[in-house]
Amino acid sequence: MRIAFPVKENKGLDSLLDEHFGTAKKFLIVDSQTKQIEEKKNRKLTSGESSCKTGVFAKEDLVNAVVTKCMGDGSQRNLTSSGIKVYQAIKDTISENLELIEKKELKLFHIFDFCQNKKNKKEGGCGHQ
User: Fold this and answer.
1) Taking 70 as the threshold, does the pLDDT of residue 2 lie above it?
2) What residues make up the domain containing 72?
3) What's the CATH number where 43 sits?
4) pTM, two decimal places
5) Does residue 118 carry a pLDDT above 60?
6) Residue at 128 is within a domain
7) Residue 129 lies in a domain
8) Are 128 and 20 spatial neighbours (Cβ–Cβ below 8 Å)?
C-alpha cells in the first residue's frame, strides 16, 4: 500500500506530520512493504491552475491512503471519491503512524473528526476555516 503523509520537512520516516493536510507544502508517499519514500509537492499550492476541485495527487502517484491529523471535509470527499482511504493520525511521526496502521490501530476519518468542528487550537482544532 502507498500511504501519503503531509509533512513540513523531509526527514524520512522520522518526519513530523504537518498539522493540516490542505496547507502542507509536501507529502511523503511511503510504500508500506518496502518502506521506500517518494516526495511530492502539494499540487494545490504549486499549480497556477489549481482550484477546490483539483486533486492533491495525480493518478500516477498511486496513493492508496492518507494519514493526517487535520483535514477539511472537501479534501476528504475528493480523496475518498478517488478511492483513497483517509486515516486519522494519532502520533507525530510517519514511523509511529505507519506502525499503527500496520497494526490496524488507526481509524478512518469520520465527518465529526474534521478540524472545522473545532476551529481554534484552544478547542483542540487546528484553526482550519
Assistant:
1) yes
2) 2-123
3) 3.30.420.130
4) 0.82
5) no
6) no
7) no
8) yes
Instruction: State residue 48's pLDDT score.
Output: 56
Cα separation values, 55 from 40, 45, 52, 80, Å: 13, 11, 8, 11
In whole angstroms, give the CA distance from residue 105 to residue 127. Answer: 26
Domains identified in the chain, total number: 1
What are the CA-CA distances from residue 15 to residues 32, 91, 95, 100 (Å)?
15, 11, 8, 16
Asked if the structure places residue 99 within a domain, the reply is yes
Could you identify the residue written with the cell 520537512? 9
| Bridge-based pairing state of the strands 26-31 and 2-7 | antiparallel
pLDDT tens digits, 19-55: 888 888 899 999 999 999 999 988 777 665 544 444 6
Would you state the cell numbers that stand for residue 93, as one nine-digit string? 511521526
CA-to-CA distance for 128 and 31, rounded, in angstroms?
A: 29
Residue with cell 486519522: 88
CB atoms within 10 A of CB 35: 12
